[in-house]
Amino acid sequence: MSKITDPIGDYLTRLRNGIKANHRIVDIPASNIKKAMTEVLFDKGYILNYKFDEAGPQGTIKIALKYHPTTKLSAIRELRRVSKPGLRQYRSAEELPRVLNGLGIAIVSTSHGVMTDKEARGKHVGGEVLCYVS
Fold first, then answer.
1. DSSP run (H or E) holding 83
2. Is 9 helix (H, G, I), strand (E, B) or coil?
3. Angle CA(102)–CA(106)–CA(112) in degrees, nearest 5?
4. Among the residues of the chain, which ranges form H helices?
5. Which stretches does DSSP call E strand in 31-122?
6. pLDDT tens track of the chain, all 134 residues?
7. Is the pTM for the entire model greater than 0.90?
8. How far apart are CA 91 and CA 28, in angstroms?
9. Backbone dihedral angles phi then psi of residue 101, each to the nearest 5 degrees
């Protein structure tokens, strides 16, 4: 078994693959930052529900994906990793990006926790831009 060098990239890829395969639930190995990102996605309505399962040494996150009832399109159109292990992307509060002119969100890891770009601008804190969700 190989070591994952980019756990956040793996998290986004598992979500992306689950959406492409029209899965209802996706299991992802847990970590504190992934739990915080999952809570942001749930608060902003991109996922239906989530559950933290503490079984085993690491635990897992079970994420129920959200689809439109009639068209079966996912609530998440695009997940894009921004800050990578080889090139971290840090932005001040003024430089935080706007995704789709405010229709999408950027998930930012700040000194005040993981939050959206809009919340970070409101609290006037910058941080590492983890990913774009639209």
1. none
2. helix
3. 120
4. 7-20, 32-43, 117-123
5. 47-53, 60-65, 79-81, 90-91, 105-110, 113-116
6. 568 899 999 999 999 999 999 999 999 999 999 999 999 999 999 999 999 999 888 999 999 999 999 999 999 999 999 999 999 999 999 999 999 998 999 999 999 999 999 999 999 999 999 999 99
7. yes
8. 28
9. 55, 35
